[in-house]
Design a protein that fits this description.
heterodimer, A: mainly alpha, 17 helices, 0% strand, B: mainly alpha, globular, Alpha-1,3-glucosyltransferase (chain B), transmembrane (chain B), transferase (chain B)
């Protein structure tokens, strides 16, 4: 790995990336009047919340059903945006008056904030593909920046995944370059933005432990900072919600549920006394009853264990041979395990593994094939998700 | 509804553009993928077309797609297909779609020749009559199709009758063949006219309440189904043959679809025109090269497409695609004149033009007010020479010269006609003298511009028409397309502001600019002239003017005395630029002929 020697090479790199990002930005501008989901109102409420209330009450406010369920750093990010929002239109940041507010200027403003946060993603890709050859680099950029899933989720459905993934990519880049401490720190920062990225934490832990070679330094690396108080913990890990999201993400539990239903049907036909379940899969945990008719009940603990078990092979590999080059691949694998076995997984979580995989995809045909299938496969439920709404 | 525009765009415009690109870059020494992709992007991602079709909501993509297909056909020397496609384009967006039935003459003439060819060479040649307008024709078609496989008794009888006559005619030589063709024209156009009258009766019946709309609609649809199935039978029959059947199949599908897309929804149509639509004149002719047996047919074997293709350009009344008509006409006529016996070709052309004009307009001529009503629908002259603010000669000069007050409507019409024709004439003359493929593209641009600048009742959206050939020429003239797109967009800016399309305007224009300046550059640049500092200063200055006018239009309120002041400024600026572009394109076209790239004289078969 050598540094780009000429200034002109760096200049060319930046020009290409700027070109691609401007193209993406123009396309995203076209999506401004597109459909918005409830997440739009959620984020607007968080703007109002962080603007009006003091820090202590952010996680305990009950004005709206959309409670703040992201870690503190994200709350600070929303606070920052609310300062600008207040200048655009004071109603936006008003806690009560602004409920379900959606004037055209506000819509434009809110969408522009997402677009404005995307440069973090561009920086992340830039860092990660700095030393890759031109064609592969351009392809990677195109795959990530133009990723339809990302564009739809971020700019239509409305979320802030772009910059979060950018932070993840920066952290991965730091690890690949051998700057473990920096990488670990950035990952901790990421967890403070969105805790759902914690699925890859075991991989990070093992890798850093082995690679950095000092056992004690990497312990307790910021995850405890994130999971500070119990209140915050409860808000952020909504185990009160069901095993599956309202729109089922294509993960393992779907098959489990289907199997349960088939078994119930068959056994009922065969004459066994099967009681219809009272709970629903998308609802919360309701006392002692189980949403499953035949198969054993699944608790969050079980899903957690299964995720860990699934990541285990990756951890062994990381333990044995912690290569910087492979870290992106492992992290992507870890996220895919989290997606498959996790509790209340959104389809949007698929972005977490598709984007890093895009980086990896250009290295070989095998990788490209995996990426291709995964990205197509993940795109279909998203399409259904959009069609429903 | 927007899905219909999108699907017609995807199904018609995109394949046509792809075909054009393939033909355009075929055989070039430097087929560079970067250029191809860039060129396709320039054509397909033109912001004006996207904004008007998908923002403002129109169906321009259909007629433009068909025009591009016609251009591609001309570039690949398939003049028949070209004329077909261009006719489809002409007839789109047009209320008098029965003009389509003028294709009868076209079909008949070529059918006649093909039939003769068949008789000469036995049943080797597949003759398919492209029209289902004439039921008798259809029957002959089916028999003709079947007889190549299993000649049955009835088929043989037909063969004998027709064959005998055909052989007699062939023996009589060229004159006899010609008479036979004319007779066929008269006969079949008579049938066509009967269907026209029938359909007109039907219209009246519905209008007076004697027949219900539902009944007519049902019968219309069932007829379409019958025609469609006949078409498909024809295709499947032909697909029994091997080579190139796939190509014919796709071509047929293309034309069939072209016919069906013109059924602009929710419009009750004259039954005859529906039939006319299905006569898509696809010539599924496979000519065996049996030239050693029997006398060679002179002009019968070759397609008589070019002359007849040009015929349809003349027939076109005021339609959008008529902007390209002079270019098509002059190019095809120029090609004709280079063949043997130019006088005969031109005479044929003249006769057929007159004949078909008569046939087409016959049902409408009789009650004179009906005729006048039709004409007035086609060309709404009483709306005036211009409407709104368009970067037209008449509109721009009306600031100083009040045309509407100065001259009567009649003299204005004549004046605009004279101006249009005279500005169109140089490029037409150039193509007649030295038809070439490159020149043809420039001729399209020039004729479209002369119509846009000097014609009657021009809309701002008509700028799409000169823009299309400019985008086809993007490879040759990259600066031109950028400049023209900028000012075309600018001229539509007031319209788009009223439609609340400012954000898409900015976004699409941004995308276009980015595509014009791909990092790494186009691998093969055709910038043969480098800009002098004066030129670059001027262009920068003009761009700055336009940008500031954008901002002024959005922010500043115009004075009460002149509420359309800024519209007028925009129009003035755009007009000057369009004139400059038109002059440049004309000059370029003439310079091409001076570099003498001439189409070779076609060999006599």
């Amino acid at each position: 790995m050598k540094d780009p020697k000429n200034r002109s090479q760096i200049h060319r790199l930046i020009t290409e990336l700027a070109w691609l990002s401007l193209l993406a930005t123009c396309t995203k501008l076209l999506l401004v009047p597109a459909y918005r989901s409830t997440d739009f109102e959620v984020h607007r409420h968080w703007l109002a919340l962080t603007h009006t209330l003091p820090l202590a009450q952010w996680y305990s406010d009950e004005t709206s059903p959309w409670t703040l369920d992201y870690p503190p750093f994200f709350a600070h990010f929303e606070h920052l945006i609310s300062l600008v929002a207040h200048l655009v239109d004071p109603t936006i940041a008003h806690l009560h008056k602004g409920l379900n507010f959606s004037s055209p200027s506000f819509i434009l403003f809110h969408r522009l904030t997402v677009i404005a946060s995307d440069p973090v993603l561009y920086y992340g890709i830039y860092r990660l593909t700095r030393y890759v050859r031109f064609k592969r680099r351009f392809l990677t950029w195109a795959l990530v920046v133009g990723s339809p899933g990302l564009v739809i989720v971020d700019h239509v459905h409305f979320q802030y995944n772009g910059f979060l993934l950018g932070v993840l990519l920066v952290s991965l880049a730091a690890l690949e370059e051998g700057r473990d401490l920096c990488g670990g720190f950035v990952f901790a920062v990421l967890l403070s933005f969105k805790h759902l990225f914690a699925v890859a934490a075991p991989v990070y832990f093992v890798y850093l432990f082995r690679h950095y070679c000092h056992g004690g330094l990497v312990k307790g690396f910021g995850r405890l900072v994130v999971m500070g108080t119990l209140v915050v913990f409860r808000r952020m890990f909504p185990f009160g919600r069901g095993l599956c999201h309202a729109y089922w993400a294509p993960n393992f539990w779907v098959f489990y549920i289907i199997l349960d239903k088939i078994l119930a049907f068959l056994l009922a036909k065969l004459g066994f006394n099967i009681q219809a379940p009272t709970a629903s899969f998308t609802g919360g945990l309701v006392g002692d009853s189980s949403p499953f008719a035949v198969l054993p009940r699944v608790t969050p603990l079980i899903t957690f264990t299964m995720v860990l078990l699934a990541i285990f092979p990756c951890l062994i590999k990381a333990w044995k041979d912690p290569q910087p080059r492979m870290i992106t691949r492992w992290v992507a694998y870890a996220y895919s395990c989290g997606f498959t076995f996790g509790w209340h997984v959104h389809e949007k979580a698929s972005l977490h593994f598709v984007i890093p995989l895009a980086i990896v995809a250009v290295h070989s045909m095998e990788d490209a094939r995996h990426y291709f299938y995964l990205s197509i496969g993940k795109f279909h439920p998203e399409l259904g998700f959009i069609m429903h709404t | 509804m927007r899905w219909t525009v999108l699907s017609s765009d995807a199904l018609l415009f995109f394949p046509a553009v792809l075909w054009f690109i393939i033909v355009y870059y075929w055989g070039r020494k430097r087929w560079l993928q970067g250029n191809v992709a860039w060129h396709i992007a320039m054509i397909l991602l033109n912001p004006c077309l996207i904004l008007i079709d998908h923002g403002h909501f129109q169906y321009n993509c259909i007629s433009l797609g068909l025009t591009v297909g016609a251009v591609a056909a001309i570039l690949s020397d398939r003049e028949l297909v070209a004329s077909v496609l261009f006719c489809l384009a002409l007839n789109h967006k047009q209320s008098l779609r029965s003009l389509f039935s003028a294709k009868e003459g076209f079909v008949v003439l070529t059918n006649g020749t093909k039939l003769r060819a068949k008789e000469q060479f036995g049943d080797v040649v597949d003759v398919k009559f492209g029209t289902a307008h004439d039921p008798g024709n259809f029957i002959v078609l089916m028999i003709g199709a079947s007889r190549t496989y299993t000649p049955t008794l009835p088929a043989k009888m037909v063969l004998r009758c027709d064959g005998g006559l055909g052989r007699w005619i062939a023996a009589e030589g060229r004159c006899g063949m010609w008479c036979w063709d004319v007779a066929q024209v008269v006969l079949r156009c008579g049938v066509g006219a009967m269907v026209q009258w029938g359909s007109r009766w039907l219209v009246e019946a519905v209008a007076s309440g004697r027949a219900s709309r539902q009944w007519v609609a049902v019968s219309q649809n069932s007829l379409m189904i019958v025609l469609a199935s006949s078409r498909w039978t024809q295709i499947t029959v032909d697909c029994g043959k091997k080579s190139k059947s796939g190509l014919y199949l796709t071509r047929n599908c293309f034309h069939a679809f072209g016919g069906s897309t013109m059924n602009e929804n929710a419009k009750f149509d004259i039954l005859g025109t529906e039939c006319g639509k299905w006569s898509t004149n696809t010539k599924l002719v496979k000519r065996e090269k049996r030239t050693e047996t029997g006398p060679k047919l002179r002009w019968g074997q070759r397609s008589v497409g070019p002359e007849l293709g040009s015929l349809y350009k003349l027939i076109a009344c005021r339609t959008m695609s008529a902007y390209f008509a002079p270019a098509f006409f002059s190019h095809l006529l120029g090609k004709c004149l280079r063949r043997r016996n130019p006088l005969l070709e031109v005479a044929k052309l003249g006769l057929v033009v007159l004949g078909t004009f008569a046939v087409v307009w016959w049902p409408y001529i009789h009650p004179v007010d009906g005729f006048l009503e039709v004409v007035s629908r086609l060309a709404p002259f009483e709306r005036g020479i211009y409407e709104d603010y368009v970067a037209n000669f008449w509109c721009t000069t009306s600031v100083l010269i009040k045309w509407k007050r100065l001259l009567t409507m009649r003299s204005l019409k004549l004046l605009s006609l004279a101006a249009t024709v005279s500005t169109c004439l140089p490029s037409m003359v150039q193509q007649l003298r030295a038809p070439s493929k490159q020149g043809f593209l420039y001729a399209l641009l020039n004729s479209a511009f002369s119509f846009y600048l000097f014609s009657f009742q021009v809309h701002e959206k008509s700028i799409l028409l000169p823009l299309l050939p400019a985008s086809l020429l993007a490879f040759e003239e990259p600066f031109l397309i950028q400049w023209l797109t900028h000012y075309a967009l600018f001229s539509m800016f007031p319209l788009l502001c009223r439609d609340n399309l400012i954000l898409p305007y900015i976004a699409l224009y941004g995308i276009f600019i980015l595509l014009c300046h791909v990092p790494g550059g186009r691998l093969d640049t055709r910038e043969t002239h480098s800009f002098t500092s004066l030129r670059s200063f001027l262009s920068a200055f003009l761009l700055l003017c336009s940008f500031s006018l954008h901002i002024i239009y959005l922010t500043v309120r115009p004075p009460k005395k002149y509420p359309y002041l800024f519209d007028a400024f925009i129009m003035l600026l755009c007009f000057t630029q369009f004139v400059l572009v038109a002059i440049y394109a004309n000059r370029k076209q003439w310079m091409l002929s001076m570099n003498s790239i001439v189409v070779d004289k076609e060999k006599h078969l």
